[in-house]
């Protein structure tokens, strides 16, 4: 077959995920256009065409997608109706709009799991804050906005009845806390031919308050059977969605070794950043391979890896400066990825660091001390 | 120390080397501007600022460099006088203009080796074609233009007296063929603090007619003492030049195990492309670290690697199409890098492929068959 790099790809969203996708797509001469509401989005100077626009607006998304061959996303909160119209016009839209419609609404997403016999935690629909008091038997629980939650926003923890007033007065779900042993993620890819490939399981450690991934460990140190089950479960989910593209499936490992799906993202994901240096094929290249119907790449690890999210210092906002990066560059196997964001804000995702080596325990120790020594201030 | 990514970097040249430098510089939020005479140069859409200009013109180079903090090159054939003026104005210019002045002239380069007791092959200066007939005792030999030779251009092989008419009627050198066992390359980096770091030795296999690297093998399979000597020799050369930046030192390994320097390039180099996936730090990141006076990265190999240059098919010129890339994507550890060139020409460097794995012999076999199956046609 002859590979024609002149195929044009449109990405809704122009943040760090789009930026790392462009970085990978350069290897295939692919030109990527991005649309983002932020005129200084991370992709601004790197996209072949950057459109400063509203990705939730029907007309803007339609006009943007209509001049490209393949349309994809780096965020779920996009105008699905426009993507459906683009699909009707014969464009390749991956993930498919119907998948985005289900996943972008945490309520529909949870219902989908129930319908497809995919294990997930107990939940109820909440229409307004008033409803919460009817479900105190579910506490402690997480109250999650059905739409527009992202990077720790749109989630409130309701531990006891005293916290009920923290809940959202908006369509949301209340999700019973599960007493899990570990949080893991499996990224799975599928192309139009129906080929499926999963990445090895990783473990996630969250920031205690911000609901943001703080550390990622690859490979996971869980039992081989559970690992195999997790990869099978991810395959089951992408098959159930009948989707093309990349799907990050976040799961809980329960104390009895069983698995529950926490949530999914039909795109490249924070839990796959380590794959750039840590795996044979990166999640960004795999996404491109999947949406262009190319053969999927081998996902094996090249060793152990720890990823650290670099978040804006809680007390700083303004033009970003990076303390401790120079010194960190002395560490063998340390790879820094800054996201091209001029302005830092408390807990804003400004970049990540991946440590690659053979001894996961040593990498974890290095990571915990590195986390303290790098500060993003204004 | 606080790392400030707002430092601005100017690159003279906007080809594949600049493009892969930008790809790496993205990880540090660094903005890179490029100047290139080709309005469709590979960096055009990826540089923060792309200036279509003449990099050999004093005024254009001065104006371009003057609005940046650090100036570097991806090709030697640039206006050195303008770089000297920029240096006088307090700009960081790495490699230093005096190094470029010596290296861009193959005659001065050879004289430099003699002066600094760096082993190199026997040569004479040629002023015009007429001179050649006085040096038939040097045959077989290579007649090389003193300046402007690049990628196989500017070199004529003079095997016997019958070939004398193929020689250049221009300032050139005539270099006696050396009966070497292998061609190798060592890339060495040096920062302003004087820290020096060499990459492991690689072996090069040239296209039989085009004087272009066809295959690169990493690590080299030569004796450990020769390897150590080669790294020491590269350190000696960069120290003799007292230069900051990256220096590729191409060498011959003689049949008795001694070394001769063939030629140098004070920049990222074709013999370092495999480092992107094959070594802990890539040559592109190392170059950036060196010119910004950051700590140099660890250069260890991550396994074995073979790099194949993808050259335009000898019978095709026009809009490039890539045969066999899809199929090649089934090979585990195959990484393709296309250079963003719309137009292919016979033997034009259009991209490269790196195969990474543990067994160098198997990688070599795969590489030789892959070389036949990928065709860049119009």
UniProtKB/TrEMBL annotation, chains A, B:
<dbReference type="Pfam" id="PF22660">
    <property type="entry name" value="RS_preATP-grasp-like"/>
</dbReference>
<feature type="binding site">
    <location>
        <position position="106"/>
    </location>
    <ligand>
        <name>ATP</name>
    </ligand>
</feature>
<keyword id="KW-0067">ATP-binding</keyword>
<comment type="subunit">
    <text>Homodimer.</text>
</comment>
<dbReference type="Pfam" id="PF17769">
    <property type="entry name" value="PurK_C"/>
</dbReference>
<dbReference type="InterPro" id="IPR054350">
    <property type="entry name" value="PurT/PurK_preATP-grasp"/>
</dbReference>
<comment type="function">
    <text>Catalyzes the ATP-dependent conversion of 5-aminoimidazole ribonucleotide (AIR) and HCO(3)- to N5-carboxyaminoimidazole ribonucleotide (N5-CAIR).</text>
</comment>
<feature type="binding site">
    <location>
        <position position="144"/>
    </location>
    <ligand>
        <name>ATP</name>
    </ligand>
</feature>
<dbReference type="InterPro" id="IPR011761">
    <property type="entry name" value="ATP-grasp"/>
</dbReference>
<dbReference type="InterPro" id="IPR003135">
    <property type="entry name" value="ATP-grasp_carboxylate-amine"/>
</dbReference>
<comment type="similarity">
    <text>Belongs to the PurK/PurT family.</text>
</comment>
<keyword id="KW-0547">Nucleotide-binding</keyword>
<feature type="binding site">
    <location>
        <position position="183"/>
    </location>
    <ligand>
        <name>ATP</name>
    </ligand>
</feature>
<dbReference type="Pfam" id="PF02222">
    <property type="entry name" value="ATP-grasp"/>
</dbReference>
<keyword id="KW-0658">Purine biosynthesis</keyword>
<comment type="function">
    <text>Catalyzes the ATP-dependent conversion of 5-aminoimidazole ribonucleotide (AIR) and HCO(3)(-) to N5-carboxyaminoimidazole ribonucleotide (N5-CAIR).</text>
</comment>
<feature type="domain" description="ATP-grasp">
    <location>
        <begin position="110"/>
        <end position="292"/>
    </location>
</feature>
<protein>
    <recommendedName>
        <fullName>N5-carboxyaminoimidazole ribonucleotide synthase</fullName>
        <ecNumber>6.3.4.18</ecNumber>
    </recommendedName>
</protein>
<dbReference type="InterPro" id="IPR040686">
    <property type="entry name" value="PurK_C"/>
</dbReference>
<comment type="pathway">
    <text>Purine metabolism; IMP biosynthesis via de novo pathway; 5-amino-1-(5-phospho-D-ribosyl)imidazole-4-carboxylate from 5-amino-1-(5-phospho-D-ribosyl)imidazole (N5-CAIR route): step 1/2.</text>
</comment>
<dbReference type="InterPro" id="IPR013815">
    <property type="entry name" value="ATP_grasp_subdomain_1"/>
</dbReference>
<dbReference type="InterPro" id="IPR005875">
    <property type="entry name" value="PurK"/>
</dbReference>
<feature type="binding site">
    <location>
        <begin position="262"/>
        <end position="263"/>
    </location>
    <ligand>
        <name>ATP</name>
    </ligand>
</feature>
<dbReference type="InterPro" id="IPR016185">
    <property type="entry name" value="PreATP-grasp_dom_sf"/>
</dbReference>
<keyword id="KW-0436">Ligase</keyword>
<feature type="binding site">
    <location>
        <begin position="175"/>
        <end position="178"/>
    </location>
    <ligand>
        <name>ATP</name>
    </ligand>
</feature>
<dbReference type="InterPro" id="IPR011054">
    <property type="entry name" value="Rudment_hybrid_motif"/>
</dbReference>
<dbReference type="GO" id="GO:0034028">
    <property type="term" value="F:5-(carboxyamino)imidazole ribonucleotide synthase activity"/>
</dbReference>
